[in-house]
Design goal:
- Keywords: ATP-binding, Nucleotide-binding.
- This is Fido domain-containing protein.
- GO terms for molecular function: ATP binding.
- InterPro entries: Fido (IPR003812), Fido-like_dom_sf (IPR036597), Fido_containing (IPR040198).
- The radius of gyration is 20 Å and the shape is globular.
- The protein has a single domain, classed as Orthogonal Bundle (Fic-like fold), CATH 1.10.3290.10.
- The protein is built from 13 helices and no strands.
- It is mostly helical and 336 residues long.
Length: 336
Amino acid sequence: MSHKGARKPICIWAIFDIHPQRIEEENTTHKGFARNYRIPPWCNIHPEELFTIPQSLRENAQLLAGLEEGKLQEAFERQFANFIFSSNMIESAGPDKAETWEIIKEILSDTKPAGRVLSNNSKSRREVIQHVQAFLYLKKRISGLECLSEEDFLNCHRILTEKIPSSGGIQDYQGRYRFCEITVGSPLVLRTGEELCCSPPSKVAEYMKGWLIDYNTALTSCSDPVAVASELKIRFLVIHPFLDGNGRMSRLLFNSLITQYYPHTIVSFGESKHERLRYNQFIRESIRRRAPGIFAFFALQKATKSALERLDEITTSTQLPDSTRIKDSLRRLIKQ
């Protein structure tokens, strides 16, 4: 029953097209990169097996697209909350997992007045609230237009970082390309102690214009979403367009592209201290060696794990055709 001051729950699922974007098989801008995974020497998987994973992820998305929304909403919300928590933890930001989940449930539910969750504007809570708001904004803009304008891109960063000073205590950097030279610490410090310099500020706007063109191409035509999203993520981190918030923005943009093709799959990085170390290592090595495929292999493993978790949750109560075959295909990569 509705009452004064109540609000409708935010159906996070409503901003996703539950019918996955068709993956083009023809030649595309990113077709050459789609097979450019760097398989680690310790990995006992044949390249031909690896190349079947994107197809299995696509089949999984199509399989789940036929289910009722109610069966997917709760599982997706948990996955979404884990992504927000993990993304914040990589930057040593936000509250613990339990409080993060409570904040996100309150934002998405209709059980409390709309302003309640925003009443405590501590920095750690803002880092959750605004992370959620930035992701919802990004997906709504992309879903409505099938492209990301520079204005929307800058607005997303403004939402993410509003009233949160940079790590150096600088204010008023939100939604603006950085205006100074920058060298970045972990994960971009090499083992030798040498720091990697990012693109000069005079080139940021130019480089981001080209980056956005490629990102928008990938939103509508992409043969291997994980590989392409990984390559774009590494390029974004090298450009480092903002004074702060680049890591979180890169993960928001990565998952916005992934969910365009695999709507039921959000990829979380950094769920634990060990996973944060692994994530940073793969980022560092990809940049140092100019080989985005290093990170792409790691990201493909994480995407596969996420897809398997959703499929396992659903198939415990619902028998789905071909689910066993898809699971077997995906598990080959997880076992590595």
